[in-house]
Amino acid sequence: MTPIPPFPPTHKPADRPALAPGLRWDVFCRVIDNHGDVGVCWRLSADLAARGHAVRLWIDDASALAWMAPQGAAGVQVLPWRDPLADEVPLDVVVEAFGCDPPAAFVERMAACHAPPLWINLEYLSAEAYVERSHGLRSPQMAGPGRGLDKWFFYPGFTETTGGLLRGAGVALAPSPRALDRPLHLTLFSYDPPGLSAFRDALSTLPGGACVDVTPGWSTRVVQEQLGLALQLAGPTRDGRLTWRALPLVSQPGFDEQLRRSDLNLVRGEDSLVRAIWAGKPLVWQLYPQDDGAHADKLEAFLALYLSGAPTGLAAALSTVWRSWNGLSDDPEAAAAWADLLPPKPLWTVWQHWAHQQAMALSRPSDLVSRLLDFVARHRVASQTV
Ligand SMILES: Cc1cn([C@H]2C[C@H](O)[C@@H](COP(=O)(O)OP(=O)(O)O[C@H]3O[C@@H](C)[C@H](O)[C@@H](O)[C@H]3O)O2)c(=O)[nH]c1=O
């Protein structure tokens, strides 16, 4: 076992390295699967830095940042996750993404600080009711390396009493919907949606045809497996009235722009759901499937929120399509619902307007980073007055 190097029992704030104005943050990220962990941690870090804060992003696998954030961000230092991490002085705020357990030696140093950093666990986004109940709760650490510290739960969410949604400074809100006088343009970023071939059938009947941009990895594989289309970056694949195009991996700003340019976005996971909302275009969401079926409740909660107040015909057709896209119903109506939702059917325009309206409504309250800064400010004031 590597011995933990000795360090003084207390560290006054003055012991911490002086950095840029604003607060100094340690963000910890473990890449478990796919791109969501790094995607969220990068957006958070870059947004904090854009507001004058200094961020050390500790990450166990930074490889995806080469394509996701090739531009980097002034104020964000990307550092390899090290365990033990006893030689670093914790900064003002420590964000642990998705309960990823920062190295024990680092947490021991946090606990040994004269004025310990504020320790925040950033959780997964959901519209379920437990989010409002759990947001902002304190978890006193009774044992382990952080004994004596408090860890605070910060839950992203869609309502005022949650942690809000990541937005970023450069988000251009959706333009108003336009009438379609060309092939429908789609982006496919998915896991393995059951019924992809039924969806292709619905697209194939569109009078103007459609062009589907397929993201690399899972989606390209699934198009090959379910539809027998081997997509190549070299050029588009014709398929009757449809055109399929393989996309390369692009930066987050490029990905966001891709969603804004599309007429219909089929997205997956939490981060691209939020970006598709901001794009203000019709969207279909595929959730990461959980073995215990927990994604079903998560989908229903989001449907209830997103479609609250929607015209009845739209709510019914969209719910049918979304459940079937997630393998949560084998509703024979799904094919008919798809057909009803696509142009030139009247519901298409209703859907466009609804997506635009929801982008505006959900962007009106403050965003996640603003709420996080407010949360931190309130706790720092409270801890100084104790
Ligand atoms: C395809 C593509 C994606 N991206 C980014 C956008 C997002 O930040 C990120 C994708 O993240 P998500 O949309 O969350 O989907 P994901 O499927 O990659 O991640 C998911 O993995 C599951 C295991 C987790 O449980 C989910 O919570 C979720 O995080 O990749 C690009 O920047 N460029 C690209 O070309």
From TrEMBL:
A Pfam family matched in the record: EarP
Reactions that this protein is recorded to catalyse: dTDP-beta-L-rhamnose + L-arginyl-[protein] = N(omega)-(alpha-L-rhamnosyl)-L-arginyl-[protein] + dTDP + H(+)
InterPro entries: EarP (IPR016633)
Entry superkingdom: Bacteria
Alphabetized UniProt keyword annotations: Glycosyltransferase, Transferase
GO function terms (MF aspect): protein-arginine rhamnosyltransferase activity
Family: Belongs to the glycosyltransferase 104 family.
Function: Protein-arginine rhamnosyltransferase that catalyzes the transfer of a single rhamnose to elongation factor P (EF-P) on 'Lys-32', a modification required for EF-P-dependent rescue of polyproline stalled ribosomes.
Xref: NCBIfam families: efp_Arg_rhamno (TIGR03837)
Protein name stated in the entry: Protein-arginine rhamnosyltransferase
